[in-house]
């Protein structure tokens, strides 16, 4: 009989990110002859792929002694990284201050508070650039808090490293081969850059598609108003200047909502807005997909925090009228086909 592990020396499984499964999606777009799959990073303990990012950011700073045990971490976040940092800081004995804006998901803010974080809400500036305002407030808090540091998710090389050595190799291992295409949502572009580097290192023949929001300035996009957090950026991030996706697909917020609804109703997967954008991008590309291709998507986070918004008809019709008018398209075989 195998002896039970010594509890004192057993690994702290609640500290490191966990490998997540990949599932086939045969009902999502049944007309396609390509194999559609999704990596379920929503199953991370913090509820999103940002668990990988938070772990890598904090581990790197602690190992380099840039962050002291018991120290304070300040970071700008739209929600998911804040949750993951709050959780990681809780188990590491660190203090975390999340700087969010008025569009932050309220469920995410409450989750951060539950993990013991402080949440500071920055008002929307006159020019509407909430990301820039958050980053400026981070610098003010660092100057006012002795010993405080920021993980600087927008430029820290540990951000893409988490996906270079974690997310992408896990996906390939689970499939038994590299996917023909991989669709990744972008904000800091850390996930995309990490996957890009893994693809280049191993020579995998994978088309890397970056999914961005309309209104994001990444990769030459035009700035515009955005109501759904977590996808796109109001500034060109340091990491994005190193990223070279094979293609960029920009998705409207109306199609993000529709993508979430279609994924939930056809595959029973409740996902957040960025994953809905990926579903919409794949739908728009459906005619590009050949028989036998393996097309992979990353489920960045779960949909429970979006129940009061993306999945609430009244909110959608009030805040995103185009999305409200488009809800009836969910019954179409491919609601995202170009007419």
TrEMBL record:
Domain Tryptophan synthase beta chain-like PALP: from-to ranges: 16-298
Protein name as annotated: Pyridoxal-phosphate dependent enzyme
Cofactor(s) the protein needs: pyridoxal 5'-phosphate
The keyword Transit peptide appears for this protein: no
Source species, domain of life: Bacteria
Organism for this UniProt entry: Galactobacter caseinivorans
Gene3D superfamilies documented for this protein: 3.40.50.1100
Keyword entries, A-Z: Pyridoxal phosphate
UniProt-listed GO biological process terms: alpha-amino acid metabolic process
PANTHER family: CYSTATHIONINE BETA-SYNTHASE
